[in-house]
Amino acid sequence: RHEPAALAQYPTVVKETESITVIDKPASIPVHAQGVYNYLSLLSMLTNSLRIEEKLYSVHRLDRLTSGLILFAKNAKFAQRLSDQWKDDNTIRKYYLARIEGDLPQERVEVCEPIRTLAHEVESCLTAECHPEGKPAKTVFERISTNGSHTIVKCSPLTGRTHQIRVHLKHLGCPIANDPIYNDRFKAVDATVEVQWPMSLYEKSSCPECESASFVTLQDAPDCSSSASSS
User: Does the pLDDT of residue 197 top 70, yes or no?
Assistant: First the structure.
């Protein structure tokens, strides 16, 4: 069975210890095999391309179109420990860099709009939205640079709702520049194109438990002056 095309980029190992493996995930591939993606999933590529044979336990996930760091534990007990730290006490923190349309104030912007899920694992239609009946959600945005039409922002999700950053940016009227779902303008221009290039969202993490002050994605954030389709 043929799978949809993906970017010609392979995952790389950023850090490895006796307990964890940190992978730099390229955009356009899901973490786990799902739907039409089997061979072109992160875990499959780690086995087939990087020859990682030991079982890895997921601690968190990234959307298919998002690049960034994925943390895997090498045993179930440590995976649970990291997961608890991630969810309960913020010992592990993560943030994202996004290139958005428009501008944000220089001050921190907090969005606390509840989010409800409309569909699961559907990438061609709206998946989540801000709604009073949704689950509590909070994201902090900080402007890094802008050229007036596009802005690079640091996004810190304090909860973990479906597409939280993308939904909250849409709520602000500043969607990710090339988001094929939540940016109506981009979706209208490229309605006939199946998007495989990386969405302008890059994940970064810090994990004291993993013996490193910070993990930084190998792919730098784009300059805010670049066009929406060139990232």
Answer: no
Helical (H) or strand (E) element with 165: helix 164-171
Predicted confidence at residue 130, as pLDDT, reads 95
pLDDT at 178 over 90: no
Kindly state the helix (H) or strand (E) to which residue 139 belongs, with its residue range.
Answer: strand 139-146
b/e code 74-103 from CB counts within 10 Å (16+ = b):
beeebbebbbebbeeeeebebbbbbbbbeb
Q: How far is CA 178 from CA 76, 125, 129, 190, 210, in A?
A: 37, 15, 18, 10, 33
Largest CA-CA distance found in the chain, in angstroms, rounded:
50
Compute the distance between CA of residue 41 and CA of residue 28 in angstroms, rounded to an integer.
9
Among 80, 82, 57, 61, residue whose Cα is nearest residue 70: 61
Does position 198 have pLDDT exceeding 60, yes or no?
Answer: no
The residue assigned the tokens 């860099």 is: 97
In angstroms, the CA 87 to CA 215 distance is 18
**What are the counts of helices (DSSP H) followed by strands (DSSP E) for the chain?**
4, 12
Q: Check 63, 89, 184, 220 and give the catalytic one.
A: 63
Among 95, 83, 3, residue whose Cα is nearest residue 45: 3
Q: How far, in Å, are 47, 133, 206, 213, 229 from residue 7 at the CA level?
A: 18, 38, 27, 30, 14
Examine the residue annotation and report whether 223 is marked as an active-site residue of this protein. Answer: no
Span 107-142, pLDDT tens digits: 999 999 999 988 655 555 568 999 999 999 999 999
